Structures are given as structure tokens and as C-alpha cells.
């Protein structure tokens, strides 16, 4: 785990709005309480909700605390809080920093490579937890690509202009001193949670994915469709998509939402 953590910290990316998304924000306080800001606390919450193993592998250990905020409605996602679907109809803002520390690894720890990171939102309970015939449902994918010079300084990396593949390209703001902005894109546009009536609470789950250490870099592919993340089989989802794209989960958070008619 120490080796994996070192490699991940050496591949830090920065993402900012559509999502308003500084991947590492040294100024922001965690929105979660102290217990839920530790790796063991996050794991316990995910296990309690059975997101480990429904969405994440049994051995998942978070390397980062993932803060998700819906600014238009002032809703924070705090590992299982209940929210109304109307409060999450627009995409959220997000930030992340290493579990147990607010220190940002210096740019000099970067490897000389191009890396792709992704933030996703998935629903393992579509159309309901008891009958997940459309699960997992892909609700959102944001990706970014950055690269570093031999001295570790970050340079901008252009992304393909194929709107069918990755959508519009936008510039991001510099968040961390010494870290230049990188382009990002919505690979899958934000699909607002809308749980059907009488289907109970859905576990809407955010997962932050980083390049798998040692894996060959490859272009991130777009799911063919949202249900089952395009795999055409119940239970298929972000875990399968991550494997196919040489990505590994490094952070997770979730909220619960249901229709008012139950």
C-alpha cells in the first residue's frame, strides 16, 4: 500500500468547474467528521452501506477524503446522508486531499508521464436495491489529462476534440502553487438522480479514480450507454469500467435519495 500511495501521490491532477473541482485543496477543511476523514472510518461507512463490495472491492482502502458539495442548494455529501433529488439536480463541486493529512505532495514528486484521472457518479440500485435491473447506472464521468516535465513541473496537455468521445474542453484554474492548469472534460454529462417512486433509497456513489500504478497508459473510453455502464449485464459498473481503462479507485463518498412517493 505504501508503494501504491507513493505512486498515486506522484500523479496528482487538478480539475475545476464544470465541477468547480480542485482535486487537492490545501485550504479547504474536510466536510466529514474526524472519524469519517480517516481511511478506517471511510471504509467502515462504505462497508455498512454494502458499497464494499457492491461497488468497490473488499480490499479498497481510500487514499483521499472526497468532499462533494452541491453549491446551488448548499448540500454536502457526508457518507450516507439523505437528500432530496431536487437538491442534487445540478452537478456538484468537489475537492480531495490525502487521508489523514492536508499536505499537498510537491510537484517534484511527479513522474515524467501523462496521467488521466476521473471522477464518477454511479447508482448500484437502479431501478431499486431489491430489483437492480439497470444497475449500475452511470450518472456522471469527468476526466482530465495532465503531464509533467522531467523536473516534475506540470504542463498542459491537449485533449482530443472528438465531441462524441469526450465532449467540450475547458480550462481550469490553478489551485495548488506550482501546479499549472490542465484541460478537463465531461466524458458523460451529469444525469441528475431521479429514483423512481416506491423504490426506496438509492445509494448514489462518487468514486475518484487514478491511473493504476504500473499499468500502460491508454485513452479513457466512454461507456456505450448508462445502464450497466454499457456492459449489458446486471451488476456491471464502474469497477469493470475502471479495470478496462487501467484506473484504480482512490476515494469514495455517497448520499441516499428516494422519491417522495413510497
Q: Helical residue percent?
A: 10-25%
Proportion of residues in β-strands: 25-35%
In round numbers, the mean pLDDT is 75
Radius of gyration: 17 Å
- β-strand number: 10
Taking the alpha carbons of the first and last residues, their distance comes to 43 Å
Shape label: globular
Largest sheet properties: 7 strands, mixed
Q: Structural class per helix/strand content?
A: alpha+beta
Query: What order do the SSEs take from the amino end to the carboxyl end, as H and E?
Result: HHHEEEEEEEEEHE
Number of helices: 4
Low-confidence stretches: 1-30, 102-112, 148-182
Describe the fold and architecture:
- By secondary structure, the protein is α+β, with helices and mostly antiparallel strands.
- It is built from 4 helices and 10 strands.
- Strands 3, 5, 6, 7, 8, 9 and 10 form a 7-stranded mixed sheet that branches. A 3-stranded antiparallel sheet has the order 2-1-4, with no helix packed on it.
- A hairpin with a 4-residue loop joins strand 1 and strand 2.
- The chain is globular, with a radius of gyration of 17 Å.
- The protein starts with a helix and ends in a 5-residue tail after the last strand.
- Residues 1-30, 102-112 and 148-182 have low confidence and may be disordered.
Amino acid at each position: 500500500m505504501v508503494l501504491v500511495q507513493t505512486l498515486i501521490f506522484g500523479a496528482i491532477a487538478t480539475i475545476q468547474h464544470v465541477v468547480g473541482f480542485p482535486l487537492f485543496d490545501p485550504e479547504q477543511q474536510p466536510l466529514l467528521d474526524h472519524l469519517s476523514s480517516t481511511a478506517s472510518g471511510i471504509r467502515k461507512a462504505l462497508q455498512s452501506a454494502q458499497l464494499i463490495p457492491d461497488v468497490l472491492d473488499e480490499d479498497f482502502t481510500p487514499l483521499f477524503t472526497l468532499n462533494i458539495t452541491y453549491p446551488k442548494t448548499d448540500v454536502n455529501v457526508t457518507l450516507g446522508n439523505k437528500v432530496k433529488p431536487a437538491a442534487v439536480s445540478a452537478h456538484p463541486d468537489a475537492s480531495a486531499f490525502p487521508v489523514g493529512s492536508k499536505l499537498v505532495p510537491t510537484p517534484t514528486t511527479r513522474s515524467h508521464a501523462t496521467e488521466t484521472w476521473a471522477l464518477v457518479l454511479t447508482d448500484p440500485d437502479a431501478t431499486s436495491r431489491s430489483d437492480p435491473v439497470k444497475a449500475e447506472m452511470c450518472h456522471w464521468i469527468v476526466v482530465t489529462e495532465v503531464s509533467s516535465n522531467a523536473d516534475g513541473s506540470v504542463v498542459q496537455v491537449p485533449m482530443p476534440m472528438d465531441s462524441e468521445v469526450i465532449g467540450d474542453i475547458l480550462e481550469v484554474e490553478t489551485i495548488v502553487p506550482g501546479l499549472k492548469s490542465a484541460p478537463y472534460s465531461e466524458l458523460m454529462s451529469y444525469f441528475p438522480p431521479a429514483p423512481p417512486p416506491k423504490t426506496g433509497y438509492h445509494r448514489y456513489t462518487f468514486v475518484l479514480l487514478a491511473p493504476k500504478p504500473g499499468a500502460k497508459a491508454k485513452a479513457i473510453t466512454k461507456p456505450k450507454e448508462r445502464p450497466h455502464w454499457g456492459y449489458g449485464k446486471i451488476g456491471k459498473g464502474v469497477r469493470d469500467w475502471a479495470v478496462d481503462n487501467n484506473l484504480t479507485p482512490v476515494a469514495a463518498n455517497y448520499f441516499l435519495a428516494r422519491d417522495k412517493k413510497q
